[in-house]
Amino acid sequence: MTTQAGPQAVPQTTPPAAPLLRMTGIGKRFPGVIALDGVDLEVGAAEIHALLGENGAGKSTLLKILSGAQPPDTGTITLGGDTVAFRSPHEAQMRGIVTIYQEFTLAPNMTIAENVFIGREPGSRLFMNWKRMAEATRVVTARVGLERSPMTLVRDLSVAEQQMVEIARALSMDSRLIVMDEPTSALSASEVEKLFAIVRKLKADGISVIFVTHRLEEVMTICDRYTVLRDGRHVGKGAVAETSIDGIIRMMVGRAVDTLFSGRESATPGPVALEAKGITRRRHAQDPHAIELDGVSLAVREGEILGIAGLVGAGRTETARAIFGADPFDAGEVLIGGQKVSIRTPQDAIRAGVGLVPEDRKQQALFLSLAIRTNLSIAALDRIDRFGIFIDHKKETALVEEYKKLLNIRMASPEQLVGNLSGGNQQKVVLARWLALRPKVLIVDEPTRGIDVGAKVEVHNLLFEMAKTGIAVIAISSELPEILAVSDRIVTMREGRVTGEVSRAEANEERLMTLMTLGRAKAA
Amino acid sequence: MADVKRDTPAAPGFDLFGFLARFAPLIFLVVLMAVFYLLEPRFLSQVNLFNVMRQVSITGLLAIGMTFVILTAGIDLSIGSLLAFAGLVAAAVAKGGLQDRFTVGEDAVGYGWQLAALAAIAIGIAGGWLQGVAITRLKVPPFVVTLGGMSVFRGAALLFAAGGPISGFDRAFTWWGQGYIGPVPVPVVVFLVAAVIAHIVLRYTRYGRKVYAVGGNPEAARLAGLNVNRIILSVYVIMGFFAGLGAFVLAARLNSAEAVAGTGYELTVIASVVIGGTSLFGGVGSVFGTVIGALLIGVLLNGLVLMNVSSYIQQIIIGVIIVLAVAFDTFAKSRRRRA
């Protein structure tokens, strides 16, 4: 990709490589977290630039700053030589920066034309001029190769076509820089090819593109230059032609891998507690953005912690939810203690001895308006009832006290609202809820998301304790160090398939990252 | 990043807002009664107080059922119509059919108040169950289902009795509406007994826990292994039960059942529940609060009557109070979130 782009390439009059966009020393902190720490990003004119990094490396925050959704705490942004400070996405768009998010922002019940010109409809103040709008729409949709009438409703379009509408909208705003966040994650292989053709055409027209993706092969195919973020800092940049996938992976992972490995002695795992065979879940009409699962098989033994590693969208959470009966699946079976079990609802799973600590504590696990007491005991009412009808207040208090001690939950009283606890203590309440059920298998999805470092260590130790008592634990985490720290064995996933299995002794971040980004489906 | 929050293991200091939020209805009730007493001393006479309580007992019964529904973040607009229909069926049973619907007093022969009460409750439960099935299986929002039910049951009531009233029951029947136990009117006893039972169910049983959990966060309840649909269905059945019971007591009190009975009850009933502090968002509230809410409305209306305020203005006042109560709830909720 060294040849200069087509006839409209920006003339090289300015001093060597004056970039279109230059973000310098961008910093952003949230309470307790430094999201970005002095990040630089440079994108040249008519350049396709890859923005890379693990989950949580700071890509999203950087994009939000670039698109005007959030102001930076420090740093400057120059665009075409002018210093700019966007106070809203609208201002960024006026300056020619348009961001296309993973979740499209189109209105499904409106036409293509209305979506392209939403908020900027041509016409008088009261009435819009449909004819002019349709013509203008046809011009931009033709540029992205979308062969649909401007009057088609967006909900009748495929995901790929909706993406084209998003790009057409960006073109209609005369954008100079289009940011695409994971644009290929919802596309099929042939649709990806089409998207690349559009992106190359944009480049030929002198438009720059920032491309955020986890698929490194795509970076090698389409991008000119790259920037790698890790832990809120930029750790590498350069020309794609001068690096390799391995090199990029090393930069993405980078940290000292010898980080605190807890002194957990390798337990001798017991018999297989849970086995999932060929779990398959297809996309359905009602849920076109759902992540598909394609024959996922895995097994976990009593007293073992099995880690599942994968990037966002790899199907980790979906696998957990399928095994737990939270989402239906189309094919495959679950065996518990060697017996095939029909799991259609969470109740079935719980009856079979499986628990799930879901990834989103507040939305999926907690009753924020209710007391700790209620939150903790809700799944284990059998342990604290009288005559099967009434709740024995004393037994319940004893239950809460038992787990308060066991898990070191810091709370004022069992009547305290769970919404008033810190994230770490909330998570302990959720863990206690499942421990109170005495499960055989416990699946924990992002068990330490959004909780502070001290609580993290406590949660990890709890997982070890559980395994010691013979519970089979499945741990899902976006943080590789966490997966490496807690797991006895690690399964990697990519695009709804299991791509590898590594024992703790053989596992390191590079190996996992390779399997997560490049791995092919493992032969069953 | 709201998770980065310090723990407060020690009991927090006195929270004036929390105290007010919890006891506001009770405080308001006491203040209102004091004001009415100052303006009109007759207000606090025993006769008048029992009068107020008898007036609220029917809508109060319905409000107990509505508390269950609103705790799950649902709503039931059909109760007035269902009450009318159930009342007519009960009346017909009491009179042994529709032939001599106007025969008054002891001459009436029929199947007795026991079967009449059972019939009213059975109709109520059936109506609630049907709506609950539509809500949980067909996934139609409760607002729409019960808005439809409002029309369906009213139509059924009109059809059943050909538009006319059915009146004149024996004394054993009317005792349930007009009788006294000591100085206390029977409907008041029925209301208070039902309230105590409902309070125990919600506070001290597994079932009650599940109602709060489903209302507080249905997805979390599902993932904790609760059968969310069954709980939601059950609260509409309970609502139906109270509509049937209310229908029976109302027919007994008026010695008559008619197809237009209960018109507009949904407003008073929902107002009682919401004023009593039960959140329309679900998961927060109590039967105790609902009883206070029902009494508050009763006292307000009674006091306004004693002060010769037009009933039109009363309607306006009730409407404004509902909106204010919900506004207060929304405000309290946003405060909880920030807390």
Automatic annotation (TrEMBL), chain A:
GO terms assigned for molecular function: ATP binding; ATP hydrolysis activity
Main location group: membrane
Keyword Transport: yes
Gene3D superfamilies listed in its UniProt record: P-loop containing nucleotide triphosphate hydrolases
Membrane topology summary: Peripheral membrane protein
Localization (cell): Cell membrane
Keywords assigned by UniProt, alphabetized: ATP-binding, Cell membrane, Membrane, Nucleotide-binding, Repeat, Sugar transport, Translocase, Transport
Domain ABC transporter, first and last residues per copy: 21-256, 274-520
Entry GO terms, CC: plasma membrane
Entry keyword Translocase: yes
Domain of life (superkingdom): Bacteria
Family note: Belongs to the ABC transporter superfamily.
Protein's UniProt name: Inositol transport system ATP-binding protein
Species whose genome carries this gene: Prosthecomicrobium pneumaticum
UniProtKB/TrEMBL annotation, chain B:
Subcellular location: Cell membrane
InterPro entries in alphabetical order: ABC_transp_permease
Keyword Iron-sulfur listed: no
Keyword Transmembrane helix in annotation: yes
GO molecular function terms noted in the UniProt entry: transmembrane transporter activity
Membrane topology: Multi-pass membrane protein
GO cellular component: plasma membrane
Keyword list, A-Z: Cell inner membrane, Cell membrane, Membrane, Transmembrane, Transmembrane helix, Transport
Annotated transmembrane regions: 20-39, 60-91, 111-130, 142-164, 184-202, 231-252, 264-281, 288-306, 312-332
This protein's name: Ribose/xylose/arabinose/galactoside ABC-type transport system permease subunit
Source species: Prosthecomicrobium pneumaticum
